[in-house]
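hey
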């Protein structure tokens, strides 16, 4: 009886060990609530779709563990520590915007270092924290230059006003590149007006712009919740000119109840959902089937983040972090948001798509090659 009991315990132990080793976990830290909920939810949906499309990986079950940082930097740090302590987590996808992603990249150097794939954050510094950090979207520098060239060369706007968030690294980095390149291309900044993160009444600044009859465009490189407020207040004041935004304007229609008032707007995007190769069409159709809505560019970035990680695990035939990192450095992946290869810093060389909004409707305007403007 004692022998049978010991055999039973041994069998149970073996089953437990096999069960623990028969899973692969991908962690994620995203803002599913709070100010940055839109990009967080969309990234999660896209990544989740890619992972659920891969039922088994290396003969193991693939799991997606999502932590909601509630748009809080402190929560981002807390959840990295939680995920990094789980031995089954092989990599992390996150965060949402640049501020949240920077916190995760920084803490990843102090704790257990895991491969970190940043879907949409564009602050240059993020990938400079360590060799474990890889970015799927383009940088602030690139979109600042892109929008300057679009304004000056393509749309012949020569007198521009800039409204920017003085408390935002994202806003400041883009403004710096826009000013430099717009001036080099013959444009002039008529007014440069800053505001604080907590400000919600922009009418005084907008009236200064309205009083200057030379201004033919306004550039607002800020997150959608501020951009939407500024645009609507400008609309109420009767300011009629072209508006330029950045990649976060992807979600501006979600911030406005009457989206049809959005007009004569240009912004750069990581992916326009109607520009579809075979992989993008599969993603578009599957996303719409699962979530009953069309995907945004953030969803496409989430899908590519998870897909490129899955591909790296397949190519390395391993879930060991050093093997995954080695494969990521040399990967050449044709994704939904374009062909992805990483430079020495973990940044991609990609295309930027310019989207135009007329009467609340998005349409593709132009494609920029990042290596031609960087």
């Amino acid at each position: 009886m004692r022998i049978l009991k010991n055999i039973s315990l041994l069998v149970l132990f073996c089953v437990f060990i096999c069960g623990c080793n028969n899973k692969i976990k991908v962690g994620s830290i995203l803002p599913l609530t709070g100010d940055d909920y839109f990009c967080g939810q969309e990234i999660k949906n896209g990544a989740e779709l890619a992972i659920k499309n891969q039922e088994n990986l290396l003969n193991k079950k693939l799991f997606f563990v999502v932590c909601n940082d509630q748009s809080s930097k402190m929560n981002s740090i807390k959840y990295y520590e939680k995920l990094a302590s789980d031995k089954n987590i092989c990599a992390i996808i996150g965060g949402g915007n640049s501020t949240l992603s920077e916190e995760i990249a920084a803490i990843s150097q102090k704790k257990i270092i895991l491969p970190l794939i940043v879907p949409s954050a564009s602050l240059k510094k993020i990938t400079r924290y360590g060799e474990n950090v890889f970015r799927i979207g383009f940088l602030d520098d690139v979109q600042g230059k892109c929008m300057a060239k679009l304004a000056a060369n393509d749309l012949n706007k020569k007198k521009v006003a800039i409204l920017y968030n003085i408390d935002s690294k994202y806003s400041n980095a883009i403004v710096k590149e826009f000013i430099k390149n717009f001036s080099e291309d013959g444009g002039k900044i008529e007014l440069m007006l800053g505001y604080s993160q907590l400000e919600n009444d922009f009418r005084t600044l907008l009236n200064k712009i309205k009083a200057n009859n030379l201004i033919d465009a306004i550039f607002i490189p800020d997150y959608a919740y501020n951009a939407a407020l500024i645009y609507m207040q400008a609309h109420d004041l009767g300011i009629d000119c072209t508006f330029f935004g950045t990649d976060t304007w992807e979600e501006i229609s979600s911030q406005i109840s009457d989206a049809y008032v959005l007009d004569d707007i240009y912004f750069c995007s990581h992916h326009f959902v109607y520009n579809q190769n075979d992989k993008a069409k599969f993603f578009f159709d599957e996303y719409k089937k699962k979530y009953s809505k069309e995907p945004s560019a953030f969803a496409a970035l989430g899908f590519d983040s998870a897909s490129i990680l899955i591909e790296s695990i397949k190519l390395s035939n391993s879930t060991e972090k050093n093997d995954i990192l080695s494969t990521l450095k040399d990967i050449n992946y044709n994704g939904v948001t374009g062909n992805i290869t990483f430079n020495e810093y973990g940044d991609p060389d990609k295309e930027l798509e310019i989207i135009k909004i007329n009467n609340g409707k998005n349409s593709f305007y132009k494609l920029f090659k990042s290596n031609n403007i960087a």
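The longest strand covers residues 60-68. The domain at 2-138+276-342 is CATH 3.40.50.2300 (Rossmann fold).
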